[in-house]
TrEMBL record:
<dbReference type="GO" id="GO:0006108">
    <property type="term" value="P:malate metabolic process"/>
</dbReference>
<feature type="domain" description="Lactate/malate dehydrogenase N-terminal">
    <location>
        <begin position="12"/>
        <end position="154"/>
    </location>
</feature>
<dbReference type="InterPro" id="IPR001557">
    <property type="entry name" value="L-lactate/malate_DH"/>
</dbReference>
<feature type="active site" description="Proton acceptor">
    <location>
        <position position="183"/>
    </location>
</feature>
<dbReference type="GO" id="GO:0030060">
    <property type="term" value="F:L-malate dehydrogenase (NAD+) activity"/>
</dbReference>
<dbReference type="GO" id="GO:0005737">
    <property type="term" value="C:cytoplasm"/>
</dbReference>
<feature type="binding site">
    <location>
        <position position="162"/>
    </location>
    <ligand>
        <name>substrate</name>
    </ligand>
</feature>
<dbReference type="InterPro" id="IPR036291">
    <property type="entry name" value="NAD(P)-bd_dom_sf"/>
</dbReference>
<feature type="binding site">
    <location>
        <position position="96"/>
    </location>
    <ligand>
        <name>substrate</name>
    </ligand>
</feature>
<keyword id="KW-0816">Tricarboxylic acid cycle</keyword>
<feature type="domain" description="Lactate/malate dehydrogenase C-terminal">
    <location>
        <begin position="156"/>
        <end position="319"/>
    </location>
</feature>
<feature type="binding site">
    <location>
        <position position="90"/>
    </location>
    <ligand>
        <name>substrate</name>
    </ligand>
</feature>
<dbReference type="InterPro" id="IPR015955">
    <property type="entry name" value="Lactate_DH/Glyco_Ohase_4_C"/>
</dbReference>
<feature type="binding site">
    <location>
        <begin position="126"/>
        <end position="128"/>
    </location>
    <ligand>
        <name>NAD(+)</name>
    </ligand>
</feature>
<dbReference type="Pfam" id="PF02866">
    <property type="entry name" value="Ldh_1_C"/>
</dbReference>
<feature type="binding site">
    <location>
        <position position="103"/>
    </location>
    <ligand>
        <name>NAD(+)</name>
    </ligand>
</feature>
<dbReference type="GO" id="GO:0006099">
    <property type="term" value="P:tricarboxylic acid cycle"/>
</dbReference>
Length: 324
């Protein structure tokens, strides 16, 4: 059949940091996604083994491992989606912002390679602190003249995954909860008032629920006791987000996701980035959705969120613009 009558070519997904705690299970979940045709696994270490292992799975996608700086660009060539879980995770007592000094440089290097190799790719940033690493990627893309705000995403899906799970004892079922703002502590703003089946929840239970969603990451960091932060739940959440990007690329579906993006919603708060709901399509974001209405308590949470986000975003921008 001539190419133009055949199915649309299926995408190549590159995962940067693919041998890590998130990288390996995420690579597995992306390998079994039927919408993927090529899977490119990049890390500083161990990717040949991870790729060989995954390549035996009987799904159609081809897997290749790329190791070390010299193989970064080959890993990215032709990628339509790039996922970045590269970088160090927290230990007990650390905030996500404490990761900035190491992860900012890692993310900047990876973003530079994306800008010069696959500038049209949809980029999903997992590396923390997301509130600052997304601005870093954006500034690098801007410096190369290839920034398209519709194609750059901070992955906040784990906050929604946690919220849906943590609210379930109150609603009797896994229940979607909008989570807006950013991805760290007080910048994570769950909008419980938008959940009709949670109307009967007591004030104390609601406060505890919100606190747990905001600080769910700390729960895992503490339980892992020095061995890192959430990896398996993050891989699950990341695979949901990648699946939505893939479905959007087909042009036949209109998946919706909450994600940390540059938007008009962000501008309303004087910010450049803010996590809110978008509809995805072949070019990334198709539609930016308005926020759900917030009650008085949620408006207070949002005030704190916006203040923190301003500082987090400025830190990322400064890192690229002024090297600080
Ligand atoms: P990890 O240490 O297990 O794995 C990180 C991987 O990154 C390692 O394999 C390492 O070799 C690799 N790496 C380091 N520098 C690199 C570079 N320059 N190029 C390519 N690869 C490089 O850590 P993890 O548990 O997988 O966490 C990774 C990051 O994801 C952390 O920053 C963590 O805080 C973050 N995270 C984010 C979310 C979220 O919701 N967005 C959730 C969990 C973790
Ligand atoms: C999470 O929410 O689990 C991640 O951001 C990792 C962390 O540092 O808590």
């Amino acid at each position: 059949m001539p190419r133009w009558l055949g199915p649309a070519p299926q995408p190549k997904v590159a995962i940067l940091g693919a041998a890590g705690g998130i990288g390996q299970p995420l690579s597995l979940l992306v390998k079994i996604n039927p919408l993927v045709s090529q899977l490119s696994l990049y890390d500083l270490v161990n990717t040949p083994g991870v790729a060989a292992d995954l390549s035996h799975i009987m799904t159609d996608s081809e897997v290749k491992g790329f190791k070390g700086d010299a193989e970064l660009k080959p890993a990215l060539e032709g990628a339509q989606i790039v996922v970045i879980p590269a970088g160090v995770p927290r230990k007990p007592g650390m905030t996500r912002d404490d990761l900035f000094n190491i992860n900012a440089g890692i993310v900047k290097t990876l973003a530079t390679a994306i800008a010069t190799t696959c500038p049209k790719a949809l980029i999903a940033v997992i590396s923390n602190p997301v509130n600052s690493t997304v601005p870093i990627v954006a500034e690098v893309l801007k410096a190369h003249g290839v920034y398209d705000p519709r194609r750059l995403f901070g992955v906040t899906t784990l906050d929604l995954v946690r919220a849906a799970k943590f609210i379930s004892p109150h609603t009797g079922a896994i229940t979607a909860v909008p989570v807006i703002g950013g991805h760290s502590g007080a910048t994570i703003v769950p909008v419980v008032s938008a959940v009709s089946s949670a109307k009967g929840i007591s004030a104390a239970d609601r406060a505890a629920l919100i606190q747990r969603i905001q600080f769910g990451g700390d729960e895992v960091v503490k339980a892992k006791d020095g061995a890192g932060s959430a990896t398996l739940s993050m891989a699950y959440a990341g695979s949901l987000f990648v699946d939505s990007l893939l479905k959007g690329l087909t042009g036949k579906a209109t998946p919706k996701e909450y994600t940390f993006v540059n938007s008009e919603v962000a501008k309303e708060f004087g910010l450049e980035y803010f996590a809110s709901e978008v509809t995805l399509g072949p070019n990334g974001v198709e539609t930016y959705h308005a926020l759900p209405s917030l009650d008085a308590d949620e408006k207070k949470l949002l005030e704190v969120c916006v203040n923190d986000l301003k500082a987090n975003i400025a830190k990322g921008v400064d890192f690229v613009k002024n090297g600080s």
